[in-house]
Structures are given as C-alpha cells and as structure tokens.
Amino acid sequence: MPVKTDASGKRWVEMGFVVPGSPEEVWAAIATGAGNSAWFTQATIDERVGGAITFDFGGGMTSSGTVTLWEPPHRFSYEERDWSGEAPPIATEIVITGRAGGTCVVRMVHALFTSSDAWDDEMEGFEAGWPGFIEVLRVYLAHFAGQPAAPVRAMSPCADDQAGAWKRLGEALGLAGANVGEQRSAGPEAPALAGTVEIVRQDARTREIMLRVSEPGPGIALIGVHPYAGSTHASLSLFLYGDGAPALAARLEPHWHDWLAKTMAGEAG
Asked: What is the value of pTM for the model shown?
C-alpha cells in the first residue's frame, strides 16, 4: 500500500489486523518490553508518557525513542528519532479495540510530518516487514501468551539472488516446497529445528515461512529472505518460550549466526 499524504504535510502508512486475546492480553504483548521480546524483537519500554523505548535488532542495530501516549489497554504511541539516518522523527500509534469472540482489532500507524518523499520507500518497507511478525503475534497470543520468552535473531547477506537464496535456505533447513500443516525438520548439518508449518508467504519483496516449533524447544520460527541495504539477506527470528527459554536462546544464538553466515555464503559444512 502506498504512503498516504494530507494537506498538512503528514505522510503515513497504516495497517489493521485481528488477533486473539482480550485487550489486556494484547496490550501486554504490544506495549511492554517483555511482550515485544516474545514476538518481535528484544525491547525495553519505560511504561509511562515520557518513558524511553528501545528496540534491539541484533548486530548493533537499535532504534530508540520516547513514549508519547500511554492509555492502557487501548492506546499507545511513541516517537523514534534515529530510525533512519537523517530522516525526521517517525511517530507510531497503536490502537487496540476489543470485539466479540475473544479477539481484538489492532490499528497501527507510522507517520512522518514532512513534505519530502525521500523516506517513502523505507516507510513502505514497514508494511512489507510487519505481516510475518503479525502472524507470529497471532500464534504467540493463541498458544504462549504470558510465558517467559526469549528471542534468537540471525541475519546474513546472501551470495545468491532472492530466488537462489530462498532455494538454498529451504534446502538447508528441510523446508523446500513446504506446505501449511506439514511437519518439517532441519537436516543434521543445521542447528536443531523441527515443527509444524503455519505460514508460507511469497511476494515480489519478501519470501518467508513460519513454523510452530517443538525443537529446540516450544516456540515460533520466522525464516525468510528479503532485500536489505541494496542486497539480498536471509534472516531467522526464533522465539522460545518457557522457564528455560533465556538460557537456551543465549546458547543457540551464536550457533545460528555462524551457520547462517556460512550457509548463505555458499560454504560447505
């Protein structure tokens, strides 16, 4: 969806989606640091207007800002000033509305107040990147809400183009030709990974697959290839749940970094 504009100079992209859970459960997942870390990325949030918010994407990539609206369990806003080089601050607003049947409608808006279109491609990139994580959020709320959680993140540039990288990654992880509902497991040369295919998504920008995993422990894995910084990158976001999740995640993350870098560079072993 293209960036929207109005006469005031505001430019924005917006998304709406439905997730299971009460407003309080959805709020805990979206508006707290522990909640974000369970389905998106490691985050810290000082839960008040004026409080600091930081997202840590690994590899030294972080984004920080300030909470500008705090009305639990329905409205949450924050402003990030360092999200993209010299870009003006970006404001994010999230509105959670409960509805019948134990679900909530979530509306998310990313807005810039500028008449320049210099950052429109990056704003549209938000829309391309969010759908996979929204699916993770749905599965998290349906099966793991409130459990201790820890994320594992790994990303690597690829020697191949997007189609070649997707083929290489799928073959290495036992996911080639996967269909929703199938049980799949990685081969012996990859880190342990096994579970049920929940989502397979491909479009002109992103190719990704999501598993509800039983190995290396209960959790969710989002795996894909996508453009980043002018080249194709492969990424893994593995969210582990349960009391042992933090220790397991800390042990696994360096192994996934090393394996992904070697595999996507075309190295053997």
From this structure: 0.90
